[in-house]
Amino acid sequence: MGTRPLLNRRLHGLGTTIFAEMSALAAATGSINLGQGFPDTDGPREIAEAAARAVLDGRGNQYPPGPGIPELRQAVAEHQQRFRGLAYDPDTEVLVTAGATEAIAAALLALLEPGDEVIALEPFYDSYAACIAMAGAVRVPLTLRAPDFRPDLDRLRALITPRTRLLLLNSPHNPTGLVLNAEELAAVAALAVEHDLLVVTDEVYEHLVFAGAHHPIAALPGMRERTVSISSAGKTFSFTGWKVGWVTAAAPLVAAVRTAKQYLTYVSAGPFQYAVAEALRLPDGYYADFRADLLRKRDLLAAGLAAAGFRVFNPEGTYFITTDITPLGEKDGIEFCRTLPERCGVVAIPNAVFYDDPDAGRPLVRFTFCKRVEVLEEAVSRLSRI
Ligand SMILES: Cc1ncc(COP(=O)(O)O)c(C=O)c1O
Question: How far is the CA of 101 from the centre of ligand 1 (A)?
Answer without folding.
Answer: 6
